[in-house]
Specification:
3 domains, membrane, acyltransferase, 5 helices, Immunoglobulin-like, 422 residues, elongated, five-stranded mixed β-sheet, palmitate, peptidoglycan synthesis, acyltransferase activity
């Protein structure tokens, strides 16, 4: 009997231990849900969370960071589209990186209120931008965004002349060539301005869908300053194709030099600032290949260059160029189609001023190698600027087309203005 009583007691003790374990688990579970006692109802839980949120918000930085463009943006421009601004605080750190991790240099403004990259972004590139700012109490705020820049297929750019800081002649137009056809010429031209310190009215004229030139009615005023502003960032040039340029270019107009080539007298008169500077004997285009008439602007200068007749349509029966001179000295381009004013060392001295012998160019006496500064061609080359005007008169040929080179001066003012889109 005693053995059986002991056995019952042992079983009782085991049962009590099991019950205690279960009750302990219940108590532990209750504690994880908000402490001992009964579980709180939904309204009490919400109120508690609201209090926590309010307390957290109370300790949040007052600095508010704004990133442009918005997170996830695509077809973002390359110049002025990426920037950071902050209110009620100052920026302490901004990082812009490509998806591959390449950092993009940028600067926080002196007042700590804004940031922008130092240079234009790359096309078809994904970027990640992170910014940190502090408020007056030193509490930090953070903001992040990623975006992708516009692709070459969805963008257009314009290459232009003259270049920044260049000094050019009075005939130099601002000429912009776009890499894609422009459908909305009005929108594109409206985003471009050209002005002169002389106060001259400047008007744009479209030559086809990809070239836009600007000039005043008369030549630029000598010693003036011309400013070109391209605000093409985001401008829709065609459906789905936007501009990516935001640029200001300033160049100088030098002294006024206009040279007149008379193919009958076979002389060129160089006039600078209204006074005759020099008269030079020349040899222009032969009767079979006369030189164009008209006002032509020097667009390129080469101390020496190759001239091959095959490149401009002068070929023999075998298809080879009628001429191929690999070291033409002191050559200056007057047209896209191949008209130059250049030195000629292969012709006899006697032809200059007496016979027109060329394939359409204007030749001046010169020495092989372009090394003799005493030659007429060398003098003219050294005293000419890109943008100077060479006017050809009394030739049996027609007047050069306004778009054959930078030669829009051969169009009267009414015709020129009629080609503007705005």
């Amino acid at each position: 009997m005693e053995w059986r009583v002991r056995t019952d007691n042992k079983r009782r003790r085991r049962s009590l231990v099991a019950v205690s374990a279960v009750l302990g688990g219940v108590l532990m579970l209750s504690a994880c849900n908000g402490g001992g006692g009964d579980k709180p109802n939904a309204s009490e839980s919400s109120k508690s969370q609201a209090d926590v949120d309010a307390a957290a918000a109370k300790d949040t930085s007052k600095a508010r960071i704004a990133i442009t463009p918005k997170d996830g943006a695509t077809n973002v421009g390359l110049n002025d589209s990426a920037n950071v601004a902050v209110s009620d605080g100052t920026l302490t750190k901004v990082e812009l990186k490509t998806a591959e991790g390449a950092a993009v240099a940028g600067k926080i403004a002196a007042d700590g209120k804004s940031w922008k990259p130092d240079a234009a972004l790359k096309r078809s590139t994904k970027y990640a931008l992170s910014a940190t700012a502090k408020d007056a109490d030193g509490r930090e705020a953070h903001e992040n965004a990623s975006f992708t820049t516009v692709s070459p297929e969805n963008s257009f750019i314009g290459s232009f002349v003259p270049d920044e800081g260049q000094t050019v002649g009075v005939g130099m137009p601002v000429s912009i060539t776009f890499n894609k056809p422009i459908k909305d010429k009005k929108a594109v031209q409206a985003a471009i301005s050209v002005s002169s310190s002389s106060g001259q009215e400047v008007v744009g004229h479209w030559f086809g869908a990809q070239r836009l030139d600007f000039r005043p009615e008369q030549y630029w005023q000598a010693n003036s300053t011309v400013t070109l502003k391209l605000a093409l960032e985001g401008v829709q040039g065609a459906p789905g194709v936007q501009g990516v340029q935001s640029k200001t270019v300033t160049f100088k107009i030098g002294r006024s030099q206009v040279s007149t080539v008379d193919t009958k007298t076979k002389k060129m008169t160089v006039t600078r600032d209204g006074a005759v500077l020099k008269t030079i004997p020349i040899s222009a285009g032969s009767p079979e290949n006369p030189t164009y008439n008209g006002q032509m602007v020097i667009s390129e200068k080469f101390k020496e260059t190759r001239m091959n007749g095959a490149t401009v349509g002068f070929t023999d029966d075998d298809g080879k160029g009628e001429y191929d001179i690999k070291d033409v000295p002191h050559a200056m381009r007057l047209s896209t189609s191949g008209t130059f004013i250049h030195g000629n060392y292969w012709g006899a001295d006697s032809i200059f001023g007496s016979v027109n012998t060329s394939h359409g160019c204007v030749g001046l006496n010169d020495a092989k190698g372009a090394g003799d500064p005493n030659q007429q061609a060398a003098w003219f080359y050294d005293n000419s600027l890109i943008g100077d005007v060479v006017t050809v008169v009394n030739s049996p040929d027609k007047t050069i087309a306004p778009d054959n080179g930078l030669n829009g001066w051969n169009m009267n003012w009414a015709e020129w203005k009629a080609g503007a889109a705005v």
